[in-house]
Amino acid sequence: MNENVLATVGVEVTDIDLGTLDEDAVDHLRDLLAEHGVLVLPDQQIDDEQFLSFLRRFGELAFTEGEQPLAGYPDLNVISNVGRDTPPRSQFHVDTSYVAQPPAYTALRAVQIPEQGGETVFTNQYRAYETLPADVRDRLEGRTIHHVVTGLDLDDQAETAADHPVFRPHPRTGRIALYLSTPQRCASVSGLSADESRATVEQLLDHSTREVNCLRHRWAPGDVVMWDNGVVLHKADHSGVVGNRVMHRGMVTGYGR
């Protein structure tokens, strides 16, 4: 296993077989995720069964209710531009933040790579917190954001809202990350008016997603990319895509031991 720490966020891990990991290797990958946010795992010629087996090594699988599952694999879903008249839309976000225990990890397996474009962009939310102006940190210390669901048709029993700290300590590292999601899902900030909440979320998102704080991952055949939802925001860049872009997505709840 060889590791190459990327400049902004993430680490590329090569010479690794996702089908033969022992528990020590899995725990090391958990530590890499907690410290660096993103694992780029190239040259993984695996199918969906092997992808699921890899994900289960990290914990119990999670699925976003209201998403379309992959046929034959109810724990996975498809992210695809195939057959669409308009490109999919994506904004910087964390996955399923409107539940009390959001997924710890998300992973994508490259199924089809477009001829051009289709990168996934990640932010460094440790750095986003550490580079906040002191007055902003002081103003938001101890506050929470009320996260709500948008764009999904959920049944009456589903979770649709949860409060999470704006400054969220990571359970494995203890480091503080700036935790927020797309503005539509950040309904309010505790102790602030509606206008103040909206302006604050926009300010935090602009700060987090500055180019200097982002990694653009250009997909290659065989790529598996996994990330820690407590450490990064992510979005797909669907602008200028030429050709089919198909990814299979899986998620894991909990950070393990």
From TrEMBL:
A Gene Ontology biological process term: sulfur compound metabolic process
Gene Ontology CC entries for this record: cytoplasm
Domain TauD/TfdA-like: 9-250
Molecular function GO terms recorded: metal ion binding; taurine dioxygenase activity
Domain of life: Bacteria
Keyword field contains Metal-binding: yes
Keyword vocabulary terms for this entry: Dioxygenase, Iron, Metal-binding, Oxidoreductase
Gene3D superfamilies tied to this protein: Clavaminate synthase-like
InterPro entries: AtsK-like (IPR051323), TauD-like_sf (IPR042098), TauD/TfdA-like (IPR003819)
Pfam families membership: TauD
Similarity section: Belongs to the TfdA dioxygenase family.
Protein name: TauD/TfdA family dioxygenase
Taxonomic lineage: Bacteria, Bacillati, Actinomycetota, Actinomycetes, Nakamurellales
